[in-house]
Amino acid sequence: MRESLVPVVLMSHTAHIRSHRKPRRNASTLAMRAGVAGGVLSTLAVAGASGAANAAESTTTQTLDLSALTADLAAQVAQSADATQQAAANYELQAERDAAAAQAAQQAKVDLADAKAKAAAKKKAANEAARKAAAEEAASRSSERTTLSASASTSTSTTSTVSAPASGSVATVIAFLKAQVGDAYVMGGTGPNSWDCSGLVQAAFKQAGVDLPRVSGDQSVAGTPVSLSNLAVGDILYWGSAGSAYHVGVYIGDGQYLDAANPSKGVVIQDLSGYPASGAVRVL
Q1: Reported pTM
Q2: 236-239 and 224-226 as β-strands: parallel, antiparallel, unpaired?
């Protein structure tokens, strides 16, 4: 009788230990895991592509922004340069104007000083010429004054006599008066560039050493009365009554007199026929 052969299954000596046995993986689990892995890879791929695209777009945007910024900066620099150039031009123009104004002001000061110097020289020359003629005039006037004083003693008019020094000169008085022609009339003015009528007469006779009263009324009786038909150069003319005259002037010959007339005329020479005087007195 044949012996039946019983297959013998050889097992690993560790087969009976459960922890050493590898569990079987079925197809569905592997498939699921493969899908998940593919999805992850796809997501990473998409994310990578998207990041690359965004990076590219960002780079492009930054490039465009940088170009625009550069252009804008260049425009601002150009505008600033234009503004600086214009400001420099304006400053240079203003400097030229200021220099011209300063030069004009300086020239005006020089001209004014020159005019004053010429006027002073003119007056000085006139006064000097008058003083040189003083001696000659004093002799001829002395005898005439003596005659007038004798005839005035019989006059009924009230007068007061002002003594004149021997060196007194009508020429000095007239020269001084003519040097003031063109000066302004100012009430109460006593010179040197503005006068009222009595202030001018007082200053003129003071040049010859005669001290006259200050106001017209007193000057009208401060000498020997003279008729208007017997006037001589240097006689004081007055308008109004003797002792209360309201205006005075000095006779300069040829039917003319010189006075500080009024604010509109100033110091002028006028014809006696146009404004006849009320009377006259002689102190030189």
Answers
A1: 0.47
A2: unpaired
